[in-house]
């Protein structure tokens, strides 16, 4: 038995299972997760309110923090702080990816409060500019170091291209923010910090949820397809878009916002972080860079694929993508 259970007014779960990424216990239909935490009570309270809202709307596979015997969420064991969360495993028979994400966003639209600690809604420009500045500073640091850092072998030729693409994304975001044609689906909702199909997982980790425009998740659902040759022809992509749009149609503002976010090379920045923090091989990096050719080709065709929606939307294409 983990000592954390001594601090909670619940029956100790009868079975521990080997689960990642956190120690997991199960008792009948309830799964309990012991999650290391650095945040304070106020931030966890907000996560509790959000997870409670999701549980009440049939997303019972979202991990929900439990109060301990001191009526607190954060429990100290030794020198470490933990959350004890519970959830129920997602039902096997369920919606497909596009439908599930749309239903998740619709549930988030109904959330009755304005989160204070996890909201990034309307703040993309500042976040993107800061990201560019941080990575430029990092690049300069590596560039000056002697002997040359191994990461420079993968960054030297590609980094200026990444910065240029990111700056284009910021410029296009400025264009998107001038669009006045938007509707109710453009309000903030519950989304994911980095969506990778979590709605189809057995469990959804509450600490991965943020409060933002739904396009945040739509863009990350689409991004992997853009890295494939003729990725927009992929049946999974077309099915996802068809299902999502049937439930949550996009406004002209949302379409432009989507394109701006796809221009931002988040996948390349994320891979740099992985390269720094692990033994990720150079082959994986170079393969991703090579796939960027497909990414640009798919971006060129993106608007034409949805030609009906764009006839009267005053969409602007980037010149360098049309060359």
From TrEMBL:
One cellular-component annotation, GO: endospore-forming forespore
Top-level taxon in the UniProt lineage: Bacteria
InterPro entries documented for this protein: CotS-like (IPR047175)
PANTHER family the UniProt entry points to: ENDOSPORE COAT-ASSOCIATED PROTEIN YUTH, SPORE COAT PROTEIN I
Protein name: Spore coat protein YutH
Species: Gracilibacillus dipsosauri
């Amino acid at each position: 038995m983990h000592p954390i259970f001594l601090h909670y007014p619940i029956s100790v779960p009868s079975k521990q299972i080997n689960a990642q990424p956190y120690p997991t216990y199960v008792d009948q239909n309830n799964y309990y997760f012991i999650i290391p935490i650095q945040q304070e009570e106020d931030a966890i309270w907000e996560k509790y309110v959000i997870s409670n809202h999701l549980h009440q709307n049939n997303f019972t596979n979202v991990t929900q923090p439990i109060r301990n015997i001191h009526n607190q969420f954060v429990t100290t064991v030794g020198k470490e702080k933990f959350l004890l969360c519970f959830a129920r495993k997602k039902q096997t028979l369920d919606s497909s990816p596009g439908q599930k994400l749309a239903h998740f966003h619709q549930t988030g639209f109904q959330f009755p409060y304005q989160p204070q600690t996890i909201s990034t809604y309307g703040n993309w420009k500042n976040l993107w500019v800061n990201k560019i500045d941080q990575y430029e500073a990092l690049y300069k640091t590596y560039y000056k170091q002697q002997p040359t850092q191994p990461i420079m072998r993968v960054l030297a030729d590609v980094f200026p291209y990444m910065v240029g693409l990111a700056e284009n994304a910021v410029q296009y975001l400025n264009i998107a923010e001038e669009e006045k044609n938007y509707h109710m689906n453009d309000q903030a909702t519950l989304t994911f910090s980095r969506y990778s199909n979590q709605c189809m997982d057995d469990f959804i980790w509450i600490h991965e949820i943020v409060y933002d425009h739904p396009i945040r998740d739509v863009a990350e659902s689409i991004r992997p397809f853009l890295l494939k040759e003729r990725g927009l022809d992929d049946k999974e992509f077309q099915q996802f878009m068809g299902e999502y749009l049937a439930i949550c149609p996009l406004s002209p503002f949302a379409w432009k916002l989507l394109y701006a976010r796809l221009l931002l090379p988040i996948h390349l920045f994320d891979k740099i972080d992985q390269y720094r923090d692990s033994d990720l091989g150079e082959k994986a990096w170079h393969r991703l860079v090579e796939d960027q050719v497909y990414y640009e080709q798919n971006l060129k065709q993106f608007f034409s694929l949805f030609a009906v929606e764009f006839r009267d939307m005053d969409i602007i294409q980037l010149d360098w993508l049309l060359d």
